[in-house]
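Marked as duplicate of an earlier ticket. Keeping the data here for the record.
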Amino acid sequence: MARFLSMARREGSTLVLLNSQAYVTQEDVLLGTLTVRESIAYSAHLRLPSKLSRKEISDIVEATITDMGLQECSDRTIGNWHMRGISGGEKKRLSIAIEVLTKPRLLFLDEPTSGLDSASAFFVVQILRSIASNGKTVISSIHQPSGEVFALFDDLLLLSGGETVYFGEAKFATKFFGEAGFPCPSRRNPSDHFLRCVNSDFDGITATLVESRRIHDSSFSLYQETTNTLDPLDNMPTAEIRTTLVRKFKCSEYALASRARIQEITSIKGLVTERNNGSQTSWWKQLRVLTQRSFINMSRDLGYYWMRIGVYILLSICVGSVFFNVGRNHKNVMNTAACGGFMAGFMTIMSIGGFQSFIEEMKVFSRERLNGHYGVAVYNVSNFLSSLPFIILMCLGTTSITNYMVKFQPSASHFFYSCLDLISAIATVESCMMMIASMVPNFLMGVIVGAGYIGVMILSAGFFRLFPALPMVFWRYPVSYLNYGAWALQGAFKNEMIGIEYDSPLPLVPKMKGELILETVLGINPAQSKWLDLGVVMMILVAYRLLFFAILKFREKVFPLIHMLYTKRTLSHIQKRPSFRRMSPFPSKRHNVHHALSSQEGLNSPLH
């Protein structure tokens, strides 16, 4: 039995270090905008020791590409929604290549051949066999392997309903089933025969077919005889077959050999595997590499920022034309406020447009974090730094167009504040969207939750209903004070109106100061500095990033426990569930020698 512990040496047990193993998930979660070589290279720089030179790391990357048979596609992009990429088999080999970079002694794989054609599946398993032949242990779950793939296995663990049906050398599994009374016909794939014996799903299929034939076919008795002739396993419940196999295995020589082997391994004293997986590089190098990789991914993914930037520019032109040269007349005070309110609301809600990319990035993080490639803090910081240039570009373009066309205050200080205010607000929303992406399972749920959250923020920002008029309970305290949009909008209004005089509606009445309009018309306190408003927005941004960090750490601790409890409950349900096959009321032909399961194979069967 292996135990996952920290670096230690103890008498009487074999310790398998957490950092000496790797796990390849069933789904190939990769950044589709990167090439095969870039994906492996970035992973190498993230995890290999900092003392290695660039040349040494490059040599390791090229050797890994060669070992995995990825030379032909090494410079092709992996592929995403708008890029054609590599095949499924190449993606699977790339996923394996990323994890074997640090030469883990123990490699787990979850159904590595799922969704692959026979040739690709055979190639992948051949790669795994070559890894195992180099002194590594490879453990993989697999469903319905072909005969060629099954022949590559060294050992086989066959489970059904949480019970061990067989555990031992794969080449002896067919012999065990024959000795247990369920021989494999010579023209059948052994793995298909094993699953046919222990998979209870066949019960439901058989029952459905029999019932359908009973209703629609008057010659049901003839059909029953035919089914008994073709496959007598149809007349024996899976639960009964499984019970027989489990009982036979416990008393078999294969079980004794397995227990002896386990006892031999656990009796080795003080053996500790070498700590050679996970990340062995510095925090600052990880930050640099992650930021660079994330920036490249964002720059190549059209849906991450570029489409939004294009929409922002087009909408800025539309806003500028609608509010063109709005002027300083008292009649245009609300027009100025409406322009600022629309820009603040629309610019933030457009962050939902990148949700699909947020979700994909979170999947990559979850996979890499599972194998200890880097920490939560470095990912949080790198994600913010890599997105900042695009947010700045969006805000500079939008503010330049609207300020010029609407004729907001033209000074450099006012323009600088407008950009900074918008950058802070959008960065805050982006952080919130990343939080939501880390908690929801798919894109649709993320859009719904994100849109709902932004809607609440816009509603309580003080534009549609002024701050003094907001209900005191909940909406004003605490929602409006925790609302980044409220502080950003106040700062934007102050930046535009303080120091400006508006024409009076009456000819002999002096001009109205912007401070008075802020207080009487918009319900904003002009005595409070706009820089304080900006500072609060930045504080909320930092708080969201800290909350994002806390959510990721919480998910690491809690989600595995929830999954374990769910798995135990499901397994318990499977063990207690009776077989639901409807036994035939007609006489069985099992005892007729002319209808034996393996009469043509020369094997004995209890179904005779």
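See parent ticket for discussion. Residues 270 and 321 are 77 Å apart (CA to CA).
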